[in-house]
């Protein structure tokens, strides 16, 4: 079963020793038990998680920002004395000296503009998945985090689970042998091609349409644009929404993140990606898609192919994908009790080795080592050598005070992983064509038009 965020709740327990913030442009230093002054951008919806728990995490909430006062009303009422803003830029400018760290929980298309501005001001940043809207933004966020030395964390909570870290150990220790293939699936789908909303509706008085659009091209207000996940201008589709979770275990365990190392030899490293999909549309993500990435060797780890399947259950049946997955694991995809069956049937990953298979759930928070009989004596519940997490938020707060970098920090993991899966969204614009992405250059080197799609055109005044 998946693991909920409430399982990650912890209270701060620190000594009174002085911790100096390392590698940061920030002028602050903190006592281990000192509270951080945190601003939250995007307080309604997903942001309610952070608003509701900020006191439990032992931190101060000093500023709140949301473009939709109605959606954020409940959150705002929880902290009546905290300053409220619609425009995050005004918030950061007016409260620069009071803010230590910023949590970003806005729609995908504004993650980067908020995060980059905050980091350039020396603020630590926690940004919800999928981190960025496009490959260029993911790369820039990583570079700015590195330059400014701020503490960062992406909100893909499964990375913090004990079983995730045990899964990484099992691959690193060679328990499942050499891995040359990975399969990731999600039976949720995107809307596919649909008419663009037309006509102009009055903008609700509680909502700032211009600020919501942010860097995206201007268009008249229409409520259908707010169903943003499947629109290319605003969302990242299921690949960004869930791929961020479900590909995480393989990306870490197979050391794919090391291909993005900023130090050492800077020779070309090519990742190839190709997609099949239901339709090509400039405005919307396809209803179903099959994306394949080919990664080069990493040290002693051989080249590996990562496969992503998105679409309804009938798509998995139609292309024989479900049967292929069941053949790999030697059992039906939906095994276990009722809840487990539903979860496994819907989303998961298989890391396929020469000696066995690791199955991960949709959040990559729980794992199975298959075949069970062969590995019945192997503990999969907690790591033996890797450190346990206190939860994604608590790990980040500790890093803000000079502690170790969280696993899903922008520089070492979250940025590279986002570049990887967001490449898939470019590939669905050019189906059946192999695109060659040079990790060092940050460019698709064999297809000029696809290379241009690594970034968006930014509305005037919203350039990064």
Could you explain how this protein is built, in words?
It is a single chain. By secondary structure, the protein is of the alpha/beta class. It has two domains: 5-156 and 396-408, NAD(P)-binding Rossmann-like Domain (Rossmann fold); 160-191 and 232-389 and 415-452, Dihydrodipicolinate Reductase, domain 2 (2-Layer Sandwich), CATH 3.30.360. It has 16 helices and 17 strands. The chain has helices spanning 47-53, 73-78, 88-94, 111-120, 135-148, 162-172, 209-213, 237-241, 243-246, 248-253, 313-318, 321-329, 338-346, 392-400, 410-427, 448-452; strands at residues 18-20, 29-31, 37-41, 60-65, 84-85, 101-104, 124-128, 152-155, 179-186, 270-277, 289-295, 304-310, 347-353, 357-361, 367-370, 435-438, 443-444. The strands form three sheets. It has a nine-stranded mixed beta sheet with strand order 15-14-13-9-12-11-10-16-17, with helices on both faces. The protein has a six-stranded parallel beta sheet with strand order 5-4-3-6-7-8, sandwiched between helices. β13 (347-353) and β14 (357-361) form a beta hairpin. α4 runs parallel beside α5 (135-148) and α5 (135-148) packs antiparallel against α15. Residues 1-27 have low confidence and may be disordered.
| Arithmetic mean pLDDT | 92
> What's the number of extended β-strand segments?
17
CATH superfamily of the largest domain: Dihydrodipicolinate Reductase, domain 2
Helix count? Answer: 16
Regarding quaternary structure, how should these chains be classified? single chain
The value of Rg in angstroms is 22 Å
| Strand adjacency order, main sheet | 15-14-13-9-12-11-10-16-17
Tally of separate domains: 2
Structural class: alpha/beta
CATH fold call of the largest domain? Dihydrodipicolinate Reductase, domain 2
């Amino acid at each position: 079963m998946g693991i909920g965020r409430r399982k990650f709740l912890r209270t701060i327990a620190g000594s009174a020793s002085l911790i100096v913030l390392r590698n940061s442009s920030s002028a602050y230093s903190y006592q281990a038990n000192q509270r951080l002054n945190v601003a939250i951008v995007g307080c309604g919806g997903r942001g309610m998680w952070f608003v509701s728990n900020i006191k439990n995490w032992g931190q101060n909430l000093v500023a709140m920002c949301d473009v939709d006062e109605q959606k954020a009303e409940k959150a705002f009422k929880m902290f009546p004395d905290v300053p409220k803003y619609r425009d995050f830029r005004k918030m950061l400018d007016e409260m620069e000296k009071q803010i230590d760290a910023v949590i970003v929980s806005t729609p995908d298309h504004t993650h980067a503009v908020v995060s980059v501005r905050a980091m350039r001001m020396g603020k630590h940043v926690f940004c919800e998945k999928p981190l960025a809207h496009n490959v260029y933004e993911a790369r820039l966020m990583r570079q700015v985090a590195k330059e400014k030395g701020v503490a960062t964390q992406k909100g893909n909570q499964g990375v913090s689970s004990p079983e995730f870290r045990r899964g990484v150990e099992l691959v690193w220790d060679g328990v499942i042998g050499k891995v040359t293939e990975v399969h990731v699936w999600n039976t949720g789908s995107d809307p596919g091609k649909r008419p663009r909303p037309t006509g102009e509706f009055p903008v609700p008085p509680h909502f700032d349409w211009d600020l919501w659009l942010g860097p995206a091209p201007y268009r008249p207000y229409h409520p259908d644009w707010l169903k943003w996940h499947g629109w290319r201008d605003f969302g990242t589709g299921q690949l960004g929404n869930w791929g961020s979770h479900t590909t995480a275990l393989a990306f870490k365990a197979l050391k794919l993140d090391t291909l993005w190392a900023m130090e050492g030899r800077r020779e070309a490293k090519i990742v190839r990606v190709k997609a099949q999909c239901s339709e090509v549309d400039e405005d919307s993500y396809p209803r179903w898609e099959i994306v394949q990435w080919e990664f080069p060797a990493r040290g002693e780890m051989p080249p590996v192919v990562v496969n992503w399947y998105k679409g309804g259950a009938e798509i998995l049946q139609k292309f024989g994908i479900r049967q292929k997955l069941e053949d790999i694991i030697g059992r039906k995809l939906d095994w276990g009790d009722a809840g487990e069956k539903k979860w496994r049937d819907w989303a998961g990953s298989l890391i396929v080795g020469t000696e066995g298979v690791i199955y991960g759930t949709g959040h990559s928070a729980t794992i199975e080592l298959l075949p069970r009989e062969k590995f019945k004596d192997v503990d999969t519940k907690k790591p033996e050598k890797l450190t346990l997490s206190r939860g994604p938020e608590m790990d980040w707060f500790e890093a803000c005070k000079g502690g170790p970098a969280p696993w899903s920090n922008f520089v070492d993991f979250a940025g590279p992983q986002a570049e990887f899966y967001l490449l898939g969204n470019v590939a669905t614009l050019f189906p059946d064509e192999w695109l060659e992405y040079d990790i060092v250059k940050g460019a698709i080197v064999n297809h000029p038009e696809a290379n241009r799609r690594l970034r968006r055109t930014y509305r005037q005044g919203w350039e990064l």
